[in-house]
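Lecture 7 notes: from sequence to structure.

We start with a single chain of 193 residues. Read the sequence below before looking at the structure.
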Amino acid sequence: MAAVRFFPGIVAILVLAACSEQADLPRRDVIELNATFDADFDLVDANGDAATDERFEGKPMLIYYGFTACPDVCPAALGAMTATLDGLGKDAAKVQPLFITVDPKRDTPDRLKDHLAYDGRILGLTGTDEALTAGRKAMNVYAKEVPLENSAMTYTVDHQRLFYITDKAGAPIYALPDTTPTDTIVALLREQL
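Now the structure, written as tokens:
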């Protein structure tokens, strides 16, 4: 009889252990950043206004580097950004989502504004090639123009596929693949609120 009472206890412990381990699985691809990363930037937003990292102090930022002519990866990442903001509910207003271009030749403020019109919460940023390059270098963001033969676009931009999360002071704390589940991104942002 003692063995019968003991068995349900073991089952309960195993179920709890499995559940807690499962909750940690989506975070396995999250990269915790250190002091070698810097989110300082001096850019222009989609409205033509100055956009520096100081402008967003007090809010954690969700940052994605991409470009408007990107055929598939960037639209999917922007969809994930919108889903993340929806998942935050009313707390979405406490987060600053940024889409920073890696293609300043094509991504003017007007083009960014049109591209992001579907979700007014996401702010597009552009600037001079020098300012954008300096910002990417500070964040260790890879982006490279790649020529396209026999294409009206003439070139594309190869870039890494990461979201960055900063704290309220603008310090980058996480980098995560743009395929990270939305609920994981929501949870990481909530930690910063």
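Residues 2-24 form the longest helix (23 residues). Keep this in mind for problem set 3.
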